[in-house]
Amino acid sequence: MAPRKPKVIVTRRLPDPVETRMRELFDTELNLDDAPLDREALIKAVQRADAIVPTITDHIDADLIAAAGDKLKLIANFGAGVDHIDVAAANERGIAVTNTPGVLTEDTADLTMALIMAVSRRIVEGANVVQAGEFTGWTPTWMMGRRVNGKRLGIIGMGRIGQAVARRAKAFGMQIHYHNRKPVSHVIAEELEATYWESLDQMLARMDIISVNCPHTPATYHLLSARRLKLLQPHAVVVNTARGGIIDEAALADLLAAGAIAGAGLDVFEFEPAINPKLLTQPNAVLLPHLGSATVEARIDMGEKVIINLKTWMDGHRPPDRVIPSML
User: Fold this and answer.
1) Residue 259 pLDDT > 70, yes or no?
2) Is 186 assigned a catalytic role?
3) For residues 267 and 293, is the Cβ–Cβ distance under 8 A?
4) Which of 21, 177, 216, 243 is catalytic?
5) Would you call 190 a catalytic residue per the annotation?
6) Are the CB atoms for 287 and 280 separated by under 8 Å?
């Protein structure tokens, strides 16, 4: 008799190749409708499963973990960020948590540069004018944006994604500055010609563009607070492809409405999917529906990482992408 396959519950629709392979390897329960599971459905899932594959739309908090059945031994997150999972509570229950780091780096960095360009050159504003049939011809002083070449880019969080953004920005002729828990290695700093700022306040006051690329943790919640946002220069642009809670969204919306900063490019929001209504009315705000990893290649790579973590755990080994509380 073949050994029992572990019960794996997937909370959202994943790419077909990923779901097919998971069905081959595990007793996998799919969400073919792709509707987010409500609280009751999540509780039932963690009570029945050996492993659960959640996404950012699932809030795996301490109470949910406390309600889990004794069989649940792995939370194999589909995504790099784990701020929606109480990793400490899972660890206390003996439930491992894994993520999918590295595979979405290039795509998120691409989108970051796209937002930098879109806001600086007013690309979305211009496209909207054309699509509305309001383009009446070229004029010398209309729809002027700002050049990115030669501008100072301040990167908050110089991990994999921050460094990938820096490489792209350097190719555009930008000057790279960054704030991080510690300086990057001398080799990387030399390659990127990057200037390290221990003081975030000091960096913010001097930059033309700010890119948020750090993880969302209790320490980075509202890292860009109302006070810090007021340090930005009037021509500054803020781009966030990390997590919405890192920025005080209401304060940012107020600054944009008042013309106190030049613009913002946001792929994530503090209370996602809800968005501050004031942001929706700002022509200098480019708002995207969390597209950072939304490429065919990235999503399949993320799924393959999930499968590797599940298979390694099933074989009795430590999953390669395990997340432990001390890492956060």
Assistant:
1) yes
2) no
3) no
4) 243
5) no
6) yes
Query: From residue 220, how far is each of 82, 83, 98, 290 by CA, in Å?
Result: 14, 11, 21, 19
Whose tokens are 């003996």? That residue is 94
Residue 327: pLDDT over 90: no
CATH of the domain spanning 105-287, picked from 3.40.50.720, 3.40.190.10, 1.20.58.100, 3.40.630.10 = 3.40.50.720
Q: Residue range 142-156: average pLDDT?
A: 97
Model confidence at 17: pLDDT above 90: yes
Question: Taking the domain 7-101+296-327, which CATH number applies?
Answer: 3.40.50.720
Closest of 13, 96, 6, 23 to residue 60, by C-alpha: 96
Is 169 a residue whose pLDDT tops 80?
Answer: yes
Given 152, 290, 299, 322, the catalytic residue: 290
Q: What is the pLDDT of residue 3?
A: 73
- Contact (Cβ atoms closer than 8 angstroms) between residue 305 and residue 298: no
Distance CA 80, CA 86 (A): 14
160 among known catalytic residues: no
**Which one of the listed residues 19, 191, 272, 304 is annotated catalytic?**
272
Instruction: Give the model's confidence band at 1: pLDDT under 50 very low, under 70 low, under 90 confident, else very high.
Output: low
